[in-house]
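Today's session is about reading a structure prediction critically. Students often jump straight to the picture, but the first step is always the sequence itself: look for stretches that repeat, for charged clusters, for runs of hydrophobic residues. Only then move on to the predicted structure, which in these notes is written as discrete structure tokens rather than atom positions. Here is the chain we will use throughout the hour.
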Amino acid sequence: MPRLEGGSQPVILGGNYKIRAPGVIGQANITKDRVTAGATRSVGVAREGSSLDEALAAQGMQDVATIDISIERQIPQPAGATLRGPGGDDAIELEVPAPKEGMDAVVLSVNESGSITWNYPLTNQNHIALPTTRGAGATLQFRIPRAPAVAPPATGSATRSILGSLGRKVLKVLLYPVTDKLVGPLANTFAGSWEAGNRPYRFRTVTPDNYNRSDITPLTANDAEWKRLGAGRSLFFVHGTFSSTHSAFAGLEKQDIEALSKAYGGRLFAFDHFTLSHSPAQNVDEMAKLLPADIPLDVDIVCHSRGGLVAREMIERADVHGLRGKLKVNKVVFVGVPNAGTILTDPSHMVNMIDRMTTAINLLPDGPVTWILEGIISAVKVIGHGGLNSLSGLTSMVPNGAYLGTLGGAMIDKPTYLGIAANFDAKATAFDRLVLMRAAGNKLVDRIFEDAENDLVVPTAGVAGGNGTLFPIPMTSMLVLDSGAGVTHTTYFANQTVRDKLHAWLSP
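Below is the predicted structure for this chain, in token form.
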């Protein structure tokens, strides 16, 4: 097994793979050409779960090399040989053979605490080396944060790791085919094409037996089910980023859906929609086309994350979408919604948001993990090919951005706004190192939320915040979970206090 002696010289791993790890004392081992589909497999100390395997395989990702780094200790980088990553932090550089024409590469890293990062080929200036500009070099360089080990998070029976047991840094070199829609200007059409084929627009029913399933027949505009949904107050679910109805609300228990179904006379339904390539305004345009023309709906709404902006679009710009007389909204429960935006969706922070979301789904059940990971991997491809302009579904959440400024105008109805927010303490957890770091006397500093309380993705205060006459949401209409609850952006509905509050707030 090749030794790492803390120097700055490349260490040959085999098969034209090299590693530079200044300041790292330990060993590195490479395993090549694994198949990322099927049952769980073990590589060294890192065991990939079936959910990650399935998501990678579905996205055409081939695991061509896994580098298992055993770090015995870390020392200061040699004088004059400092190696920094894109965030300014100490880094490990991995050199890999350039893939053949028609393929591209990305490195998935899991560090000692279990945090997960996506790493792109870089230029010498630490910018993403886009395929159209990197030339025909024989190798690609990746610089992965060399964050020192922190204590792994405490885990119980309800938590899991998509990369299995932890304790060493693992780097996975993944190759994937580059389709025509990922090349040059066409990269901006890739996300929309992927969502059209994999996340189509649709209405669907929600029942105790199907709420966490994806294989549900869509409701068409002429479906007889609309008459029943329009016969009284209904409960309407709207999911968030990278997600869908069955994955966003999977944290709810069957008995929760049973109780809500009873309260609303069995009238529960949801809206599945694009979250990457379409803005909330485009989402509601498409939604309006799918609604029945002659059956008005009277609804309360439960929405998560970006889904809250879709709900606000329905309410605060109803006339723009021709919803007058078609949709009356009474109560809205905003769960982890970026009503004041989140800086993570700024293009300069987008990779960090994806890293946080990838690590956060570590806490979700197997089924939704695969579904959400597929959406994340699609975004990874788009960013690596300069297609950020196609991710308007994400950039719509930029604070003080153009989209958020369109909300808060005149409304047909003025429903009651309610909110649920969380403050998650990342210290000594898998998320401790998932910050945008800079070099400051070798100190790692979080420059994203500037120490403001947040749930990893959305600022805690930003759920109650927002523009318009219905904001801020009064604190008497808010549930704010403190750090002791351990709730992150992806785990709200698994929390009993959250579920109890939904039952207390939601009834016709």
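Discussion point for the tutorial: The chain has a mean pLDDT of 85.
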